[in-house]
Amino acid sequence: MNLLEEKLSQFDPAVDGIIRNEMRRNEETINLIASENYPPKSLMKAISSMLSGIYSEGYPGERWYRGLENIDRLESLAIGRAKAVFGAEHANVQALSGSAANIAAYLSLLKLGDRILSMEIDAGGHLSHGARASVVSRMFDVVQYGVDPQTGLLDYEAIRRQALETRPRLIVCGASAYPRTIDFARFRQIAREAGAFLMADISHIAGLVVAGEHPTPVPHCDIVTTTTHKTLRMTRGAIILCKAEHADQVDHAVFPTLQGGPHQANISAIAVGLKHLGTPEYRQYIREVVQNAKTLSESLREQGAEIVTGGTDNHLLLLDLAKWSIDGETASVLLEEAHLIVNKNKIPGDRGTAKKPSGIRLGTPAMTSRGMGEEEARLIARWVVEVVTHPEEQTLRNKVKEDVIALCRRFPIYRMTF
Ligand SMILES: *Cc1c(COP(=O)(O)O)cnc(C)c1O
After folding, report:
1. Is residue 20 part of a domain?
2. Are 300 and 272 contained in the same domain?
3. Would you say residue 416 has pLDDT above 80?
4. At a CB cut-off of 8 Å and minimum separation 6, what does 124 contact?
5. CB neighbour list of residue 110: distance below 8 Å, 6 or more residues apart
6. How many CB atoms within 10 Å of residue 356?
7. Residue whose CA is at the smallest distance from ligand 1 atom 4
8. CA-CA 20 to 30 A from 26: which of 33, 162, 247, 308?
9. Which of 277, 303, 319 is the last residue of a domain?
10. Which run of H or of E encompasses 172?
């Protein structure tokens, strides 16, 4: 048996079967996870090449191993495209994930123990912004801001006061669960006044920024980080953008400080994905993502749902379930039974716990990728409300599930059979 030539389905039916089942699960469910998306086939083709086995520590033109002329060309292409698409002075495409990109960004600007001012996880910030559970909270002195518990909005004047009182070396803005536009220019003013560096983590909204549906943080920030797999719709990875003056520190922080060799197969997929971002089709896709989120939010409200901040400016919204006496954990389990996939989420002023919060988060990037539009968003809103307001009714959930599957059949993700 030549192991290099074995077919997956013949050699390992267990793994092959799981992959096929997961593909089927995706085709038959509506994915409302705001951080997920479906990578285009061209990217999946790129990531499955023999570049998966390559070692390429270092950067184009300064590698530790030989035989990397093609890889140098590839990584330079990805870097050039990232700089052009975001209008950045420098780009690093090697970070293995958003969390790693953030840690590298901190390491490039700060000394261990320096103070960071960032958004609380309960208000919509990310673990890697310095939540207690993250190693970031042990590496740095993390102080956090929230949102106004009444409005759910960032209170820039309160953040300014906190920055002037606590004098952080770095202010981090950007979020995983904030449904409104972030005023990066305002954050820049605050950082300037407080004498702090400014970093924006646009993991969620990067696609909106590229398409002009959200103001860009790039001119205002020392460093901007983003994951590649959310609204950017690439395979999983991250990009760090920065001013030229921070370029060497950022590159050094990624390699050799934090990581070893980069995943070049993924960098090849990211290069393809960056080419997608410049097309009219991608901009149109993002406009539809935003429109679908608005329609979903408005339809939910029409049916009596409580939406945090009253709506959304971007691709996601937070549903406050308190008035219906159901928690986010229970709601997400019931919705899964109806083939509607969401995540539980804390909401501003939440009295629940992380495991049993009062809300759920809904996002439109994935449903929009499979071609669903406003009509489907209205149907989804109706189904979500039916399921969460009738937790005892198993037959209703079964009926919704059948309707969801029927809708999904009209919107295949990939036009291929299993
Ligand atoms: C998703 C996300 C990340 C983390 O990305 P991983 O690739 O899961 O490490 C970082 N920051 C924000 C704001 C995110 O939403």
Report:
1. no
2. no
3. no
4. 147, 175, 176, 177, 178
5. 116, 140, 169, 170, 197
6. 13
7. 98
8. 308
9. 277
10. strand 170-173
Q: Which atom, in ligand 1's list, is nearest to the CA of 35? A: 1
Entry pTM: 0.97
Question: What single letter denotes the amino acid at residue 212?
Answer: G
Residue with tokens 């960004």: 105
Torsion over CA: 166, 167, 168, 173 (sign):
positive
Q: Look up residue 193 and give its DSSP letter.
A: H
Tokens of residue 317, six digits: 């919204």
Q: Which of 219, 251, 277 is the last residue of a domain?
A: 277
3-state secondary structure of 160: helix
My answer on whether 99 and 245 are in the same domain is: yes
Question: Which structural domain range is residue 338 located in?
Answer: 289-410
- The enclosing domain of 153 has a CATH number of 3.40.640.10
Q: Summarize pLDDT for 195-252 with one digit per residue, the tens.
A: 999 999 999 999 999 999 999 999 999 999 999 999 999 999 999 999 999 999 999 9
Contact call for residues 389 and 324 (beta carbons, < 8 A): yes
Cβ neighbors of 88 (< 8 A, separation 6 or more) are 82, 218, 224, 241, 242
Residue 284 domain flag: no
The stretch 9-17 carries a mean pLDDT of: 98
Structure tokens at 78: 């990805």
Query: Is 198 strand, coil or helix?
Result: strand
What is the rounded CA–CA span in Å between residue 61 and residue 368? 40
Distance 99 CA to ligand 1 centre (A): 6
Whether 227 and 202 have beta carbons less than 8 Å apart is answered as no
Tell me if the bond preceding 40 is cis, omega within 30° of 0: no
* Residue 365: per-residue pLDDT: 98
> What SS3 state is found at 271?
helix
229 CA: nearest ligand 1 atom: 7
Position 1 in a domain: no
Best mutation site among 116, 203, 236 for ligand 1 pocket (most ligand atoms within 8 Å of CB): 203
How many other CB atoms are there within 10 angstroms of residue 315's CB atom?
28
In a domain, 143, yes or no: yes
Q: Are 186 and 315 in the same domain?
A: no
Q: Are residues 306 and 251 in the same domain?
A: no
Number of domains in the chain: 2
Tokens read off for 194: 């407080």
CATH number for position 402: 3.90.1150.10
